[in-house]
What we know:
By secondary structure, this protein is mainly β.
Amino acid sequence: MHEGVHEALHRIAAIGAAARLDLGGLDLTDSDLRTLRPEIGHLTTLTELDLSSNQLTVLPEAIGNLTALTELDLSSNQLTVLPEAIGNLTALTELDLSSNQLTVLPEAIGNLTALSWLGLAGNQLTTVPEAIGNLTALTELWLNANRLTVLPEAIGNLTALTDLWLNGNRLTAVPEAIGNLTALTSLNLCNNQLTVIPEAIANLIALTELRLNNNGFTSVPEAIGNLTALTQLDLSSNQLTGIPNAIRNLTALTELDLCSNQLTAIPETIGSLTALSWLGLAGNQLTTVPEAIGNLTALTELDLCSNQLTAIPEAIGNLTALTELRMSGNQLTTVPEGIGNLTALNWLGLFDNRLTALPEAIGNLTALNWLGLFDNQLTTVPEGIGRLPALSMLWLNNNQLTTVPDTIGNLTALTTLGLAGNRLTVLPDTIGNLTALTTLWLNVNQLTVVPDTIGNLTALTTLGLSNNRLTAVPDTIGNLTALTTLDLSNNQLNAVPKAIGNLTSLAELELCGNPILERQPDTRTTATRYSNDRTD
């Protein structure tokens, strides 16, 4: 504890029944307090008391003598109950009781009518007393992360509330009285067990943030269209099968999350939400995307992953502000040429689809940093891929590529290149231009040779060449002195490449499944020891 805390505790313990200390504020946070002496009640001039982050399990009734307190912080203790005397602290404007073990609140809490901020998050409350409705000056109420199953109707009396956090409880319904809270700007009801959104929510016309994710909603009332001040709406992880047309009224929305529902279609009216910068539609059952999505020209992030999309509308080319576009886990066979208009993109995920080809226009995405194309059916890569100078990660694993264009050598910013699981028989010499590469996966192909230029890739730390048809590797592999992992297993090598002796950073060397190890049993031991000797 700090010297000042020691002194404060000493003075509190020393004061007699008639003694008084003229203190305005007392900070005893994180002081390893397990009990609070009754003498605390003599500090009647205190206006601020911070007892947070201690190990208090109870409070003395004498706490009720501190009637001048305006701020009391008891967060992060182990309190299970509060004394009725807490109701004497009628001057309190801020009371933090979060992160304790409270299971009930005393009715006397309703006496604290000056409170503007009340923190009760992270307790074990199952109910809230009706007396909470007396706290009509409250502007912020934090009841999240408790065990509440119901809310009192009296919550509708708190008409000054601007922020109400009820997330992480066990609520199955919300009282219609919530519609009285017309000053609310932020309402968080996520992670509950709600199945119906009350119509009364339509009265909350000041709301700018509404979080309803992780519940059991199957529908959204048309009345949601009244919430025209909303900028953030989270309806993800529910069981929604449709979105009302009234959503078109929410023209102030900048973030809309509809991920992980059971949506089969998105209304054309979504095109009215022209202020949107983030739109999440992943994890639904969408088969199409409306052309009207092209109206959302302020979008910077669009997530369409894990649906059943077979095509993307050309109108997607209008979304020229996009920086992230996620379309993995669908059934796409083609990508529209219009994708080439998205020149601000830095992240593009098209993996786990059924793509057989890519448009040349992909070469226009000159800001692209990450491109995921693995788990498709690509047989070729367009020459235009070489026009992506900012690309640092390119994933082409698990396709049907037989060749890679020479232009891949232009991608000099690449640090990771995945080409494993294809049908490559040869690599272009230009691969040697990729001198920033640290990871190169070429496993599970049909390579019979590796170009000498691979020796230029001196930044490589991981090189995978397993499950090919290599009979030798070039001596230039010895230049790759930064390598820590080299996998040459399951090839047709007849000898341990001598150049490997230069790779002094190697920690892992895989040579199993080669003829050298089948015909010369002692070589396995030698190769293993060789690797281990280089890990010093």
